[in-house]
Design brief:
The complex is a heterodimer of chains A (about 260) and B (about 450). Chain A is about 65% helix and about 0% strand. Chain A is built from 14 helices and no strands. Chain A is mainly α and about 260 residues long. Chain A is elongated, with a radius of gyration of 32 Å. Chain B is of the alpha+beta class. In chain B, the strands form three sheets. In chain B, strands 5, 6, 7, 8, 9 and 10 form a six-stranded antiparallel sheet that branches. A six-stranded antiparallel sheet of chain B has the order 13-12-11-14-15-16. About 5% of the residues of chain B have low confidence. The chains are: A mainly alpha (about 260), B alpha+beta (about 450). At the A-B interface, helix 1, helix 3, helix 4, helix 6 and helix 8 of A face helix 5, helix 8, helix 11, strand 11 and strand 12 of B.
């Protein structure tokens, strides 16, 4: 009894070579044979086409799985609690629009004793392949998942040598000092820079990093001060509003972890 | 002076409440410089976190957006904010700056290059882009002598085109697949062009996709041969629609590209259920991104597929997010294996799907998909949800359980995420069966679903 697989094999050979070179196979007794009898093809080519259509359709409808495969050694369980869902969603947004806040996000997750959701872990391992320091932080947060998944996808997730691609330049001393200073000092520094359009336009990326780095306890004061300046108006307003956005996002991010 | 939209209309374009709030935040005049509008577009510059202000343009005539910000959302908050700013009367008329003029010109080029009928839809099926309100009514279909005559003329054109296709298929069996003419795109393009002329656009797209498979990898000739067989089924079926049972005829019509009018579908009785939104895939098909959203009825256990389309710059409808449960009416298109549906009344806002969709074994899913293919052998994808483990074996990734295994065909981005979510243990996975293998679209867990579906974009 010719099986569908055998019928298909014969048809595939004729299909490849063409009925100008090979005759159409004769279908064995069964449904395909009856089909051709009911609607006789005019020649070998029509016969092959009809048989190909019938057998292909029958094979697709007869979809069967292959043999079961033994699963691998599963990833060891990580007992730490999962990052709250809002924080995972926040991270994906930050990666696109406010990457300057990602380091703090990682620090907050570490401080909270959380483990990364698997999709977040994969995204971060891929992103920080070239960056040994950040990669180490991500690996800690991902726990046993990090080596387990990296071993299976070395091309996409494995560490790469060659320094940090696109690493931010070190902050100039006055900005770094302001970031680490008491709230009043950093507030005064920010106020000084944002009053001058020439300065604020040139220094905006640094100001962003500064806002991302000031003491979280003083963040509310910075938001209030920036808000006041934005309301007061002036030609620096668009830049102040952009800083305000980042400050508010940062505060929301911190709240989501607590 | 062109008529301005109302702010409520603009906010209705936001995919969710958070996006609407972000758009409102962006709609302050002090954020924007060099803003202007004409009868087609709105443009402006917005200071953001980047070194340079973001350049934003909105094409109002076809609801398309462009912004240089890094966000991958479309429309982003800057685009919606700018539109809102314009709706509130804060944007003066003006001449297009270079960045706006360039992008609008590029859109016009792409639109001109598109075939006369895109992918699947009749014009009635595509979202009407000139009226932003979603509550707008749809035109009442004309049922008169002129429409019937046009329908008969169309049927004759299609039948003639299908007979011509069938003669070409018979010639391919005569000459064999090693015929060098098949290795040339021009051969296939000519067949596709004739099918477009015969008003069989879906068949034309199918032929063009097949062209790319010739000679690509071992076993290509078996795949191409089977696909030619499927084209034969559709060519013969399409020429004898009146002899077929009505459901089968409807399925053949859809596969050829002759979709029913949305008004007719909505007029039919809906299926009401709590629908698990179990997957999403965005595929770029010849200048259009096609979004398929897969739903599974909790009580009826029925599968449903929602289709959305977007041209270059247009946003895809994100009404249903993967991992939610929505109590709604769905109106199904007729067919022998009905999958495509339109959303009817939504009875409550979608909520987080904590329980998740029902799952089959691998063998059980094969039965289900097999039934679908037995009814419509030309189906190119069929959904399934299985409780299975992704495993690497013999150079391929498969999904396996104790009943069997099926090969995976995920994108390079999807596979690591899928494998990480499963962690080497059985996971609840929704995937699309395709001829090339299973394409995973979501992994379901207690905290919702992880969306791993393809994200092709311009």
């Amino acid at each position: 009894m010719t099986t569908l697989v055998e019928q298909w094999s014969a048809l595939a050979t004729v299909g490849l070579l063409g009925t100008d070179r090979r005759p159409a196979p004769e279908p064995p007794p069964g449904a395909v044979h009856d089909l051709l009898e009911a609607d006789p093809p005019a020649d070998h080519a029509e016969s092959v086409l009809a048989q190909v259509a019938a057998v292909a359709a029958a094979r697709r409808a007869g979809l069967r799985p292959a043999e079961p495969v033994a699963p691998p050694e599963p990833c060891p369980v990580d007992e730490r609690p999962l990052c709250p869902p809002a924080t995972s969603q926040r991270l994906f947004e930050l990666l696109d629009t406010e990457p300057v806040l990602v380091d703090e996000w990682l620090a907050l997750a570490t401080a909270g004793g959380f483990r990364l959701a698997p999709d977040v872990a994969v995204a971060l391992l891929a992103r920080h392949r070239h960056d040994a320091d950040r990669r180490a932080i991500v690996a800690d947060l991902a726990g046993p998942l990090a080596p387990w998944i990296t071993e299976q996808f070395p091309l996409q997730l494995g560490a790469r040598r060659g320094g940090v691609v696109g690493a931010p330049a070190p902050m100039p001393p006055e900005f770094a000092a302001a970031a680490g200073a008491p709230v009043e000092v950093s507030l005064a520094f920010v106020a000084l820079v944002v009053t001058d359009r020439k300065h604020v336009r040139r220094d905006q990326p640094l100001l962003l990093r500064l806002i991302a780095a000031v003491d979280p306890a003083g963040l509310a004061a910075h938001i209030a001060a920036l808000d006041e300046r934005a309301t007061a108006g002036g030609d620096t307003t668009p830049f102040v509003l952009a800083l305000l956005d980042v400050a508010r996002t940062r505060r929301a991010m911190i709240d989501e972890f607590s | 002076m062109t008529e301005r939209w109302r702010p409520e209309h603009v906010l209705a374009l936001a995919p969710d409440a958070a996006a609407a709030a972000a758009a409102r935040g962006m709609a302050t005049p002090s954020r924007w410089s060099a803003a202007g509008a004409d009868d087609v577009a709105v443009w402006g510059l917005c200071v953001g976190s980047g070194a340079e202000p973001y350049q934003t343009v909105v094409d109002r005539s076809e609801l398309a957006y462009r912004c240089s910000c890094p966000s991958r959302k479309l429309p982003c908050k800057h685009a919606l904010g700018l539109l809102l700013l314009w709706a509130n009367g804060h944007v003066p008329e003006g001449a297009r700056p270079a960045h706006a003029a360039e992008w609008l010109a590029r859109r016009a080029e792409r639109a001109a290059g598109r075939p006369a009928r895109q992918a699947d839809p009749e014009p009635a099926d595509e979202p009407n882009p000139t009226r932003p309100s979603r509550a707008g009514g749809e035109p009442v279909p004309r049922r008169d002598g002129a429409a019937d005559k046009r329908a008969m003329e169309r049927a004759a054109r299609v039948a003639a085109g299908l007979r011509q296709l069938d003669r070409w298929l018979v010639d391919r069996m005569r000459a064999g697949l090693t015929d060098p003419s098949l290795a040339r795109y021009a051969t296939w393009d000519a067949v596709a062009a004739r099918l477009v002329d015969a008003q069989a656009p879906s068949l034309a797209n199918r032929v063009k996709r097949l062209a790319g498979a010739v000679g690509t990898r071992p076993g290509w000739h078996e795949h191409v041969l089977a696909e030619l067989g499927v084209l034969h089924l559709l060519a013969r079926g399409g020429a004898r629609l009146h002899e077929l049972p009505s459901d089968l005829a409807a399925g053949v019509r859809t596969a050829i590209g002759w979709a029913a009018r949305t008004d007719d579908i909505r007029a039919g009785a809906p299926i009401t259920d709590h629908w698990h939104v179990v997957g999403r895939s965005d595929i770029l098909e010849d200048r259009i991104v096609v979004r398929r959203t897969w739903l599974r009825g909790d009580t009826t256990r029925r599968w449903a597929m929602l289709l959305g389309f977007a041209a270059y710059g247009q946003a895809l409808d994100s009404a249903f997010a993967v991992g939610t449960l929505v109590h709604a009416d769905l109106h199904f298109y007729p067919g022998a294996a009905p999958l495509r549906a339109l959303t009817g009344v939504v009875h409550a806002a979608p909520e987080l799907d904590a329980v998740g969709p029902p799952a089959s074994s691998i063998a059980g899913a094969c039965d289900e998909v097999g039934m679908g293919l037995a009814a419509e052998p030309w189906l190119e994808r069929h959904p399934m949800t299985v409780e299975a483990t992704p495993v690497h074996r013999g150079g391929r990734w498969v999904l396996t359980d104790h009943t069997g295994s099926l090969a995976l065909a995920g994108t390079p981005e999807a596979l690591p995420t899928l494998v990480a979510c499963a962690g080497g243990r059985p996971a609840r996975v929704t995937a699309e069966w395709t001829v090339a293998g299973l394409v995973p679209v979501a992994v379901h867990g207690e905290l919702g679903a992880v969306d791993v579906g393809p994200r092709e974009a311009f």
